[in-house]
Design brief:
This protein is α+β, with helices and mostly antiparallel strands. The chain is built from 14 helices and nine strands.
């Protein structure tokens, strides 16, 4: 596995994936300027054991909610892709079909489609999500899961290095939780995956696969789906869903995770299920109000920047079209028309600001 991971072909492929959509960035351009030399240097460092990860760059976003994003240096992102090229297909074959996040052929809208299919078929739903998902993922639990599938020592050493680089990155976002059997040293367990890493998105699925298998195989739930840390179970029996709820709480504790208890309620499917920014009913989908409010705020800011000459019309249009392409999966024609008519594109200033 290590020879394949560090091969020229895999590193070349990894560069292409890491650079996709980002070739205008300075770090990508600098790496691409002497691409062969940089890839050969990276290959040599990986093979002789001298490769070391660089420092993350951190920033905070506030939409759709506050999150601390950690961006790895570009050459490290190439290595992340090189690793995932090799091990992700092995794990993906073990995942359940209805795990929708960060997988080829899946995604948000297919997750919404499937949820609505089951909302039409079943009377009740139990929707749950994990508290502080990425900050709380335990390195020991994750490393054990990876080690069950990957045996190559050098590949595992790279996994360990990437894991260690993220230790403490989200410490300020995590509220300590003690589980049954913990001692005082449990507070020192390494946890947290940097939001923004390709490996973090993939490892989240590896981590949560235990829950997926538990729900579908041991509990026997025939209608279950998950997107990152949001998951939903369906049944025609309220009693069955509440019994599953209790057992899921126990299983999550075994993974050193907790669920938001207030939101974990059994509800009639006809009541409307909050799911990935939408409220999904058996016969329709609505956009959550906060999504519309957040877009209106972003649109007005983009219009101001366009009128000042700080962004081009193409950039303004891309922002609008991106939102439309997302919300068109719900019954939002009237909402889109209202927002866009209420915020017309004004006259562009003749004076541009550098």
């Amino acid at each position: 596995m290590w020879d394949l991971l560090t091969s020229w072909d895999n590193l070349w492929l990894a560069f292409g994936k890491a650079a996709r959509g980002k070739r205008g960035g300075l770090s990508v351009a600098a790496f691409e300027h002497q691409l062969a030399d940089h890839l050969l240097s990276l290959q040599a460092e990986l093979r002789d054991g001298t490769y070391r990860l660089g420092a993350y760059r951190h920033f905070v976003i506030h939409e759709p909610k506050r999150r601390r994003i950690s961006a790895a240096p570009f050459r490290d992102r190439v290595v992340h892709h090189a690793l995932c090229n090799l091990i992700e297909p092995v794990f993906d074959a073990r995942f359940i079909d209805h795990s929708y996040a960060n997988r080829v052929g899946k995604g948000t809208h297919r997750a919404v489609d499937q949820l609505q299919i089951w909302a039409k078929r079943y009377r009740y739903a139990l929707r749950m999500d994990v508290v502080q998902h990425f900050p709380s993922l335990d390195h020991g639990v994750l490393r054990a899961e990876i080690g069950r599938v990957v045996s190559d020592e050098r590949t595992l050493a790279l996994v360990d290095q990437i894991l260690a680089s993220g230790a403490g990155v989200l410490a300020g976002e995590y509220t300590p939780v003690y589980f049954a059997g913990d001692d005082l040293f449990a507070a020192n367990r390494q946890r947290g995956l940097p939001i923004g890493n390709l490996t973090s998105q993939f490892w989240s699925n590896v981590y949560m696969n235990d829950l997926d298998q538990f729900v579908t195989r041991e509990l026997g739930c025939a209608a279950y789906l998950r997107y990152v840390d949001d998951f939903c179970l369906f049944s025609d029996s309220k009693r069955a869903l509440w019994a599953w709820h209790t057992r899921i709480i126990g299983r999550l504790a075994g993974l050193r995770l907790t669920a938001h208890e207030r939101e974990a309620q059994v509800m009639p499917a006809t009541q409307g299920i909050p799911w990935l920014g939408f409220v999904v009913y058996p016969d329709r989908r609505l956009l959550k109000r906060r999504n519309a409010v957040a877009f209106t705020r972003r649109l007005r800011n983009a219009l101001d920047l366009y009128q000042l000459g700080r962004i081009s019309f193409a950039e303004l249009d891309a922002s609008i079209q991106g939102w439309i392409n997302h919300v068109r999966y719900a019954d939002t024609w009237g909402l889109r028309e209202h927002i866009l008519e209420s915020n017309p594109i004004g006259r562009r200033s003749s004076v541009t600001t550098p």
